[in-house]
Amino acid sequence: MTRISHRIAAIAESATLAVDAKAKALKAAGRPVIGFGAGEPDFPTPDYIVNAAISAASVSSNHRYTPTPGLPELRTAIVEKTKRDSHFEITADQVLVTNGGKQAVYQAFATIVNPGDEILLPAPYWTTYPECIKLAGGIPVEVFADETQDYLVTVEQLESARTSKTKALLFCSPSNPTGAVYSPAQVKAIGEWALKNNIWIISDEIYEHLLYDGATAPSLPVLVPALADQTIILNGVAKTYAMTGWRVGWMIGPKDVIKAATNLQSHLSSNVSNVSQRAAIAALTGDLSAVHKMGEAFDRRRKLITKLLNEIPGFECPLPTGAFYVYPSVKAVLGKTIRGKTPKTSAELATLILDEVEVAAVPGEAFGPSGYLRFSYALSDDDIVEGIGRIKKLITEG
C-alpha cells in the first residue's frame, strides 16, 4: 500500500514557485541572483489598502467566522467593480470569494468537471491549470499556438481538438505566461463557437487591468451574452493591486454553480481572512490611480526587456500587450555548446543560465512544449538590464 494517494502523488510542483524559491534561497545565501520567475508585482500594496486592513484588525467582528461566500460588503463591491470594469451585470449570489485566485481555479474545475471530461487548454498555459483539471478527474487537452501566432489559438484549432467528451475551455486573456491578448473579434468568435457547441468557458481575468498599446480584454459574456449561463469568471486583487500575499480571489458564475462551489468551500476552507477581505473592499472601491501608476512602470519595463531579449542571438521575443511577462522562443539556442555544456531543452538551458550567471527564468516545459523561457518583468529596470545582460554575455561567448 502506498503512503501517498495516487491522485496527490501525480501533482507536479508549481514550477514558477519552485524557480522563485530557488532564486530566493541563493540570494539569501549571499549570491547575486536576479530572479525573473515570480508572477507578482514588485510594488508594495497601496497605503490606503494597508490602512483599511490595519483598521479592520481592531474590529472584533473580523476576529470571527463570517459567511463562506464572502463578506456581503465585498461581494457587493465585486458586483459593482465587475459592472464598472467589464460592463457585465451580475448579482451578489453569483459571487464566491476565495483564498486567492488559485482556489477559484481549483473550485471552478472541481464544480463542473466529471471524471473523463476533456478540458481544452490553450498552450502555453499557466502551470496550475492542468493540475487542477486532473485533480477534478478531467483530461487536459493542449491546444498549442507558438510565437508565429503571437501565442493565440484559433477557433479552427479549438474545433480540431473538440470531441464528444469536451466539457469546457480554459480561457486566459491577458495570458500568463505569454502576455498575449486576444482581440475583441477573436474573443467573440471563440465565445460564439463555445455557445454553438455547448462548451463551458472558465475565463481567468486576473490580468484585466495590465494592458498596453491600446489593447482591450473584453469579458466573454459581454460580447456573447447568451454564454453567461455557461461561463465561470475567475479574478482577484493580487495582480492589479499588488496584493499577492493577501489571498483574495473570487469566482463569478451561474447561481447553481456558485452555490455548489460554496458548499465545497464550506468544507475545504470556510471564509477568507476577514482582514484581507476588508482590504480588498478598499481596493475595489477606491480609484485606479495607483493601478495606472504601476501600469506605466510595467509598460516601460515591457519595452525594455523585449528589446534586450531580442538582442540575444537565438532569442525571438514577441512584444506582449498584457500582463507582466515575456515569453521568448529559445529554440535556436538549444543544441549549441555553452561553457562546455549543450542544453537540448529549455529546462536544461534555464538550469545552465542559473548555474553560470545566476539569473532565474522559468522554462517552457512548465507551460507546455519545450523551447521557451518565461521572464517576469515585475522587477526594477536596473535588474532587468543586469539580468538580461548576463544572459546575453553567456550566450554570445558560447
Automatic annotation (TrEMBL):
It comes from freshwater metagenome. Transmembrane segments: none annotated. The keyword NADP does not apply. Keywords: Aminotransferase, Pyridoxal phosphate, Transferase. This is Unannotated protein. Belongs to the class-I pyridoxal-phosphate-dependent aminotransferase family. One of its GO terms (molecular function) is pyridoxal phosphate binding. Its cofactor is pyridoxal 5'-phosphate. Residues 32-391 form the Aminotransferase class I/classII large domain. InterPro entries: Aminotransferase_I/II_large (IPR004839), AspAT/PAT-like (IPR050596), NHTrfase_class1_PyrdxlP-BS (IPR004838), PyrdxlP-dep_Trfase (IPR015424), PyrdxlP-dep_Trfase_major (IPR015421), PyrdxlP-dep_Trfase_small (IPR015422).
